[in-house]
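User: I'm new to structure prediction. If I give you an amino acid sequence, what do you actually give back? Let's try with this one:
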Amino acid sequence: GLERGAKNQFSTFSNFITTINQKKEGIGNRNSPTQLVIPNIKNVRDLPPICLDVRQKQRISVDTLPQELKAPIPPEPSLPIRTKTVKDFQDDVEKAKSSGDWKAVHDFYSTTFDSFLEINAAFKKDTNSPFNTIEDSGINAKFVNVVYDALLNTPQDVQKSVLKGIINGLLQEWKGPRTKDDLRAYCILLQNPQFSNTSTYVIYAHLLRQIAALTEADHHFLVHWSKKISQRRFKQLVDRLLQFISLRLFPAKPEEFPPMVKCTWWIPSATKVLALFNAANSLISPPIISYTDFYNSTLDHIDLMEEYHNWQCYGNSHRFSFCQYPFIISIAAKKVIIQRDSEQQMISIARQSLVDKVSRRQKPDMNMLFLNVKVRRTHLVSDSLDELARKRADLKKKLKVTFVGEAGLDMGGLTKEWFLLLIRQIFHPDYGMFTYHKDSHCHWFSSFKCDNYSEFRLVGALMGLAVYNSITLDIRFPPCCYKKLLSPPIVPCDHNTLVGICDVVLDDLFQIMPELAHGLSELLSYEGNVEEDFYSTFQVFQEEFGVIKSYNLKPNGDKIPVTNQNRKEYVQLYVDFLLNKSIYKQFAAFYYGFHSVCASYALLLLRPEEVEILVCGSPELDMSALQRSTQYEGYQKTDLTIRYFWDVVLGFSLDLQKKLLHFATGSDRVPVGGMADLNFKISKTETSTNWLPVAHTCFNQLCLPPYKNKKELKQKLIIGISNAEGFGLE
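Assistant: Good question. You get back a string of structure tokens that encode the predicted 3D arrangement of the chain. For your 730 residues, that looks like this:
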């Protein structure tokens, strides 16, 4: 368990219940509202089933709800008066540590956690204030943190009294509409560090079940309250839920938990609560923690395709599937789903082609099972465009490339070379399709108008083919591009529906045109008179083929001055114009090209950042992992030249390591599966040591002469990787 869980191991849950039944500690009058109810284990496990009206969603969205929900609020019961402060509690703990008498601390814990009312009495900032807004939970977070931080260092009977009180509170509070005090209690109980210990999982599961069964309006409050939790504690809560799911799927000691058939609701309940934290995380910019912190790598080891097919068949119905909550599925697992879904589509399309051929009594040809692309190197773009346009029905078949006049058999190398050459040619500034922005090191769509946007469709199809055939491309699009590519993730049936249009903000423009975005940011923060000093209107100008053209950001925009009052609207319309409207036709063609290959429900599982990683890999380099997975031809890993090589490479700066990777593979990014998926090979070349290293990017192969010393190897390698533009093609 987390947070000293190993030190404070509890006995099994049933033994714990038996122990506290035997002790029967008399605390006050039996009729007192704080009297502990001690249930047996059967009562704990037989709580009512989770409400049937809880909607299982693929993504939880809180944005669709109003800021203040008008649902009737049940009256809050009056709270007991509790006057203990943080300092009082800390003094009690210090006295108990020095004297060994923990009675005062024990009384505080057993009373505080006995019911939801007592939890609010202790931790509510002001017992007389309702705190019915999403902005302030009314929880004294400092006091909660101090109490929980001290809990795991108290004697076992104190810790058991807390769990006993939580059981009592969960049983008492099960029925009836939820008040904001109930929600506060749930929010506080979720943070209990005892739930990192597997011996408490039965109680934890019932707490999660009750929270999962709350109404959408109540979830709305919990989401907004959760975003106020500190980063460290927020991460602990997420990790605790992920650990709970993992250990329920693959328990180290199965006898610790009830049989799976009796607690099928454990994992759905935990996942739904985790979805609330994911929603809270997405409300903050930048997010509290990375979206990758919600990944559960344990799911990489379950039958993901069964999950995917269940989700396809039953959608977001009452049948649970992890695909309804894609934030929990790692990018590696999503890649597996997409690859297998692609393979099944390939097999299905190929089988149908074979059946059609046989039904017409024609002789089957193996080539009909592939997307065969034949191109001339001298007419690479036009030939590729013609081939993909003619063979649109075959795009979902396995790709096989042939260069006309060359006796090459495509075992993967020619396909990769075709992608490399084509992408390099299309993105060249002279081609005019994309503009390269040096400040952001990325490409963006040219806004120049033309009669035919088919080449943009070709680029989209290329990206789709790369994902479909598991090829990593050396493309530099900003994150905004992938957000637009998933807007919507499934191509609409109505062709009049706009595609590739998404909500964009100034931060999106910063990632493409930082200088312009900075100027607009300065406009927003300008303290003088905007109208008089800037003398701007809701009209913008763009140069197209040497001609300056004007565009109104809104009707009669040329007559509407930009003022201090409307400058936010001006900036938003300008950003929307640059990233959506001015390139709509170009991006729509690109969108349809991508989805002509990658149309799949699996895209619903992906975030824009994950699409980018699938297309062009991850920027995170681990050269030690590359060293472990490298294969050798003509060398042994113990040879002196190889040892020199890795000493030099591991000592390189990140910039030089990226140059090496780009030199050897054609891209400085890493595939989803990590360095091992590169299949990197170092081959010995029997040439003079005066020669520089040579790379075959199609095969991720580096040819290294047997340099005599480390200094010479380092010098030649740096020269080679720093001057590697162009291809030596025979």
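You can read the tokens as a compact description of the fold. Here is one thing that stands out. Confidence is low (pLDDT under 50) at residues 1-71, 726-730.
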